[in-house]
Design brief:
single chain; 10-stranded mixed beta sheet; DUF362 domain-containing protein; signal; 26% helix; alpha/beta; TAT_signal; 3-stranded antiparallel beta sheet; DUF362
Length: 423
């Protein structure tokens, strides 16, 4: 288990059997969250579905978006071969995925479904799996071009990540085109995560690219990290980044297809819950105090995150089935050659969950929901008593998207997964 990212039970089948729809609000309410937001006066405790939640299928861009349950997977064996990525193949795959997601005649029309002139758009990267499995620079460049095709000006596009140290280590700054700004929320990872401005609450960094966190926008959750002072109210809060709350009005999220030692998987949902706020270590500060299943849905339910994260494109060009999120071993990655497109992060992560479990079965490993120090640990690498991919289903209970592949309530409540082969 990585000391820097301290992330690694009850099996998935046992959990789902024990937890019906009626039990979900009680489970989520065990650690009630309050969304404090100066911009959203109706924000309130989210043990049930808040008043600001978009109705499924109402066409709103807010999560779960205009296409609840729709996941488009584009598979193209040319995107990476023997570790070398092909920009043209990724370009064709992005264009096809956007067309299919939006039901548009061409890619530019699809991008215009989500973005328009005057928008200020953030592109959320994920560098944690560097160098083996992080958001591809080639994918980021295609998103930039797509935004421009929708009329978004270069000066209104910001490429960003939470930690500047990770962003620079992955050399993501070098790939950002001229005229496009890149920023980060904090300076770098640290175990004491209640700072607002940067590492250890220091001022902006020397580069002037750290934005810090918003004192008025946060998720209050009665969970305090190991070793933190419970008398300090900041220990119970996760503040949203100022870039998220005050700079951009829309965000394109680019998660990576990976497993995760504590959350089970890390996809669209965790890319937001742990990438847009501070004080996240409290969700898994010790091996036996893992609460990712509750923390992730509650943070993503914050009204600003729901409203602004309008599109998710998962980089599944390289996948990680064990050892995530750091992707420390080549043996635990594979060239998956796929991109996933969705406005619904729950549906996207359900497909991710199945992909990871299928690869783990192929490699002779237990499902992520049956893995942990107190469950199955055949490699002796698990860092937490039990992994918690159930956060995906619980996010569905909060109205963040659809979870069922075949819902008894009918097609409108089922995931519609379309796989397309492009070469």
């Amino acid at each position: 288990m990585s000391k820097r990212y301290p992330c690694g039970g009850a099996g998935r089948r046992d959990f789902l059997a024990a937890m019906g729809m009626a039990a979900a609000p009680a489970a989520l309410g065990a650690l009630a969250a309050t969304h404090a937001s100066a911009q959203e006066p109706k924000a309130a405790a989210s043990a049930g579905t808040p008043a600001h939640v978009p109705v499924l299928g109402d066409g709103s861009l807010g999560i779960p978006g205009p296409y609840p349950g729709r996941v488009v997977e584009v598979r193209n064996p040319r995107m990476i071969r023997a570790g070398v990525k092909d920009r043209e193949a990724i370009k064709r795959s992005v264009a096809r995925g956007m067309k299919e997601l939006a039901g548009a005649d061409d890619a530019a029309s699809a991008w215009r479904r989500f973005f328009e002139p005057g928008d200020v758009v953030g592109i959320k990267m994920n560098p944690v799996g560097n160098p083996l499995a992080n958001t591809s620079s080639e994918l980021m460049l295609e998103v930039v071009d797509g935004l421009k095709s929708a009329g978004v000006k270069a000066r209104d596009i910001v490429v960003f990540e939470r930690y500047q140290e990770d962003f620079l280590a992955a050399k993501m700054d070098r790939a950002v085109p001229d005229g496009i700004e890149w920023l980060t929320l904090g300076v770098g990872y640290n175990a004491h995560q209640i700072d607002i401005r940067g590492k250890d609450d220091r001022p902006l960094d020397d580069l002037g690219r750290v934005t810090g966190y918003d004192p008025d926008e946060f998720v209050h959750l009665e969970a305090v990290g190991n070793g933190e002072d419970p008398k300090d109210d900041r220990t119970r809060r996760s503040h949203l980044g100022l870039l998220v709350t005050r700079r951009v009005n829309k965000i394109v999220c680019l998660p990576v297809l990976k497993d995760h030692g504590s959350a089970g998987i890390t996809g669209a949902l965790k890319n937001m819950s742990h990438g847009l706020v501070n004080n996240v270590c409290r969700s898994h500060s010790t091996p036996d105090s893992n609460i990712c299943n509750i923390f992730i849905p509650q943070v993503v339910s914050h009204p600003i995150i729901r409203r602004k994260c309008v599109l998710h494109i998962m980089d599944g060009i390289v996948g990680v089935y064990q050892g995530g999120p750091g992707a420390g071993k080549v043996d635990w990655t594979w060239e998956n050659n796929a991109l996933l497109f969705a406005t619904d992060p729950v549906a996207m992560d359900r497909i991710l969950w199945d992909r990871i479990d299928a690869k783990r079965k192929e490699k002779g490993l237990p499902p992520v929901a049956a893995s942990g120090r107190a469950a199955a640990d055949p490699l002796g690498t698990e860092g937490f008593d039990a992994r918690q991919p159930q956060h995906v289903r619980l996010a569905g209970f909060l109205g963040l998207g659809l979870f069922e592949l075949d819902s008894p309530r009918g097609r409108r409540f089922s995931i519609q997964h379309t796989a397309i082969d492009v070469s």
